[in-house]
Amino acid sequence: MSYVAIIDDSVVVRKIVEASMGRIGIRCLGFQDGYEALQKLGAEKGPLPDLLFLDINLPRLDGFELLRLFKSNPRFARIVIIVLSSRDSVLDRVKFRLAGAQAYLVKPFRIQDLQAVVTTHLSAPHQEETPPNLTWPTDAYTSARLPDRNVTSGPQAPSNAYRRPALMPEKVFQ
Question: Which end of the chain is more exposed for a tag (fewer CB within 10 A), N or C?
Fold first, then answer.
């Protein structure tokens, strides 16, 4: 039987997540901060949660650092991590997705969205995470606009690297 864990300093959010997981037949374990979660999950020799809800604003150890700790440890690396946050900025979403979070839900969230994310990620087979492609882009539009530099991998930039695209007006920023 799979179970999920939630790390959130708000008792109300933990209770809502626990109750909504109970409705779909999934056991839920709650932690009030990252240190408590690391102590309990790290000490147990039993099964780890299949999915973890993680708040960003946590006391003592913030959500981003906790996410990096989980993803850097081979024992915890396969846990699906869903970020629950009151922050709704694109920067936060990108930062957490690049760090290894599989989804990002904004508080206040709908119970249906929470349950849908859980059923989607728990029903999908676990795949090994591959690091993002960090080589130079290879499509014609992007590579034609790259500056001409000595690069060790990827396509070499053409000599017209700083020329504006034909559809771009010349005085947009003046």
Answer: C
Distances (CA, A) of 173 to 139, 146, 167, 169, 170: 26, 20, 15, 9, 8
Q: Is the pLDDT of residue 156 over 60?
A: no
Q: 78 by DSSP, 3-state: which?
A: coil
Q: Do 38 and 32 meet the contact criterion of CB atoms below 8 Å apart?
A: no
Q: How far is CA 15 from the centre of its chain?
A: 23
Q: How does pLDDT run across 158-167, given as a tens digit for each residue?
A: 444 444 444 4
E strand spans, the chain: 3-7, 27-31, 51-55, 80-85, 103-106
**The CATH number fitting domain 3-123, selected from 3.30.200.20, 3.40.47.10, 1.10.10.10, 3.40.50.2300:** 3.40.50.2300
Q: Judge contact between 154 and 137, C-beta under 8 A.
A: yes
Sorted by sequence, the CB contacts under 8 Å of residue 7 that are 6+ apart come out as 30, 31, 32, 33, 34, 37, 52, 53, 54, 55, 58, 63, 66
